Amino acid sequence: MENLIELDKRHFIHPTSSIQQQQKDGAKVIMEKGEGIYLTDTNGNVYIDAMSSLWNVNIGHGREELAEVAAQQLKKLAFSSAFSTFSHEPAIKLAEKIATISPTGLNAVFFTSGGSESNDSAIKLVRHYWKIQGKPGRRKIIALKRGYHGVAAASTSVTGIPEFWGMAGHMMIDFIHAESPYGGNTEKAIASLRQVIEDEGPENIAAFLVEPVQGAGGVLIPPADYFKEVRKLCDEYEILFIADEIITGFGRTGKMFGMENWGATPDLMTFAKGVTSGYIPLGGVVVSDHIHNVLKEKSKGTLFHGFTYSGHPTAAAVALKNIEIIEHENLIENSRKMGEVLLKSFKMVKENLDIVGDVRTIGLLGAVELVQNPVTNKRFAQELNVAPRVIEALYERGVICRPVTFNGTDIICFAPPIVIDNEQINTLVEKLYDSVLSVQKQLGVTS
Ligand code: PMP
User: Is Transferase one of the keywords (predicted)?
Assistant: First the structure.
């Protein structure tokens, strides 16, 4: 373990990390194995993986079936190209399967290796769509403040969390952010979106790109009528509607895809994470029949956009098995039911403690907000580090969760594997209660 920590410091630049903190403190934990909702580290400590790692291990860790399918495919045909007119069965079958489970009218898939590549691809595709229709001026992409869409070139710029923009200078041009419906209502959020469209000029706008639930922004669940209004507005101005289903896809919200909760159908949908439950990297973009037809008719010559791993056969084989498990084990139903149990338990925690504000779930995507005053929703001073302290208290009790502290919020996010059961939720929420209580006491608040 000591040796691993030294090697980690010397050679491993971690994603989304403080390099100085790594050099000072070393790796906090080195994970060794996973089973179901649990992770075990090299010291034998067991943790509840309450975030499904990075919102992605939907069916839980350690499923032998996925390992077997991957081994079989690796032995038969580990990799071959899908460029130009080369193809192979796993990618064809996965594209067909994704078309079958996607919203009506979305039937053609472009594959990538992850979420950021999927959003960059969707952005290039919609610009191409307008270009081949003689409207090259439609380039601007609108998204929401607090939206998260990845860290590639365009996906960094479409992300609405300013912390992500500074690393290498500033963001790309032609990306604009409207108000999120968080903390407000549909009317206000739609008015902001309309204003942005009018200000930028509808004739310059290619698409609106949005998560059904803003995940990294703090699990922000829009009001029930929000996306129907978004759909209407996009139709009114002829703007394409792209749903980023990278967190919300594959059962996470109690539906196969998150947008189904709002009864709205996008023109394009990006996915990744839960498509393979993280066992192997894969992502993609699904497009509507209309877009596919325009591409078929008007996209002349080679479309110079393709990743080496677009349609990776082994990743595709794993995805097919993963989706089969989600369907055969009724995991979408489990996600919906257990999401209700989780919400009930969060409400009990709120009733019994003094610093819990809004609690919410949609399927197994949930959040608990910590506030100084739950009646007025007054927030804690940021220096108090309330959410990170609760995360630390949870960690000490064997639970891995994630804080969101943008704009002065203190939000604890939850996205456990969708195989979680009643008893495991009870254990998780007991540990949450104890953790919040301990921080509440440190803050001098007594229940
Ligand atoms: N979109 C959303 C909504 C995400 O949550 C993420 C990853 N957290 C991404 C895009 C980017 O995906 P990736 O990290 O696989 O590039």
Answer: yes
- Predicted pLDDT of residue 4: 95
**Structure tokens, 135:** 């409207």
CATH of the domain at 210: 3.40.640.10
User: CA dist 115 to 56, 163, 223, Å?
Assistant: 11, 19, 25
Q: Mark which of 329, 362, 380 sits at the end of a domain.
A: 329
What is the side-by-side order of every strand in the sheet holding 356-362? 356-362, 365-370, 411-414, 402-404
Instruction: Give the pLDDT of residue 67.
Output: 98
Question: What pLDDT does 186 receive?
Answer: 96
Residue spans of the chain under pLDDT 50: none
Domain co-membership, 104 together with 208? yes
- Is beta strand 31-35 parallel, antiparallel or unpaired with respect to 38-41? antiparallel
What is the number of alpha carbons within 13 Å of residue 378 lying toward its C-beta? 6
Instruction: Quote the CA–CA distance of 147 and 211 in Å, as a whole number.
Output: 7
Type of residue found at 273: K
Cβ(272) – ligand 1 distance below 6 Å: yes
User: Number of folded domains in the chain?
Assistant: 2
Domain that holds residue 384: 4-62+330-443
Answer yes or no: do 253 and 381 share one domain: no
Q: How far is the CA of 267 from the centre of ligand 1 (A)?
A: 19
ipTM over 0.90: yes
Q: Are residues 107 and 31 in the same domain?
A: no
Let me know whether 274 and 355 are in one domain: no
Whole-structure pTM value? 0.98
120 lines ligand 1 (CB under 6 A): no
Residues 58, 91, single domain; the answer is no
Rounded distance between C-alpha atoms, residue 429 and residue 129, angstroms: 47
CA torsion through residues 200, 201, 204, 206, sign: positive
Is 179 a pocket residue for ligand 1 (Cβ < 6 Å)? no
